[in-house]
# Entry
Amino acid sequence: MPIEVESPEEMGYATIQYNLAESSVRDIYFRDLKVNLDDLFMCYGEHRGKLELRNEIVRNEIGLDADNVLVCPSAATALFIISTTLLNNKDHLIVLRPNYATNIETPRAINCEISFIDLAFENGFQFNIEKIKNAVKPNTKLISLTSPHNPTGVVFDSKILEEIIAFAEEKGIYVLVDETYRYLNFQSELIPYYAAKSKNVISVCSLSKAHGVPGIRTGWLINKDGKLMHDFLAAKEQIIICNSVVDEEIAHHILSQKDYLQKTHQHIRQNFSILKNWMENEQKYLEWTEPNAGVVCFPRIKNEYPVDIAKFYKILYEEHKTLVGAGHWFEQDDRYFRLGFGYPSKEELLQGLKNIDASIEASML
Ligand SMILES: Cc1ncc(COP(=O)(O)O)c(C=O)c1O
# Structure
């Protein structure tokens, strides 16, 4: 997948000075966590995940408890477990596009039938609920939604998601809500997990995006159906048995700290206002849909500007050491790109934005 081949990890972080490609905040050092692991017993962990960690994951969540949580080595693994457990080649899936690649590629690998709900720039990347309803077939097994959304940063209206959930329940269809970006709610309250609303809903999240620790590969899925959770657990056991106890201990330490995200949200708010000002008042080549949460948006180069797009990305990276996520990472035209504003420092963001402008100008036909 291009998003993997061309990711900053694969390109080499040292080659990128202005990293505007990330969908997360800046990573932190282990030493900053002040966690002591000396007394950690290095056994296999509880297969469902450390109980205290599962309790923390659903602390303050009404209608959910630790039994509804399966800790997985990352949201990506949780998504893999969900797809491989629920779907086979006779099933039908309805999924939003663009999307995080795994939400599309794993179902493709399973060879199930897929209907895409395409999100258009012209509609502010919103979707029409009737399109989802009309896409349902007798073999529809799963509706797959991502909110806050990657790569647009759009948060879908809770009422619309609730309507889809009620509709899916009536039809006996499962709903996946990939909520991996939920903790990046820098301008609103935390939205409760959708899994609390129905046994048909599976929520997914992780510590990768907001907490600065994607390296511990810790995520989870949440669902209230005991039988389904048993199947998910069996799938996890086939893949990995249990999580790393080291990762779980660190995850528990992080989630049990109050106000862990306060500084992070401050940083995102500051960078977001820089970005918004730049988009609306300083640059002229791009148009966008303003994101509501997360740390990414998906602007596009206006059609009226004739730009050699391949040259734009080349100049941006090779001359300005600046990386953004090209549209083709998300099966979209390369006039779009994902711009991550939470990872860079304020100074890096300011310079990175200038570099985008300069690279568009230098690529004008
Ligand atoms: C929507 C979405 N879900 C899941 C993931 C995977 O996250 P993790 O690092 O927890 O595997 C990503 C990563 O970009 C994502 O964008």
Q: What stands out?
A: DSSP finds twelve helices and 14 strands in the chain. The mean pLDDT is 97. Residues 262-282 form the longest helix (21 residues).
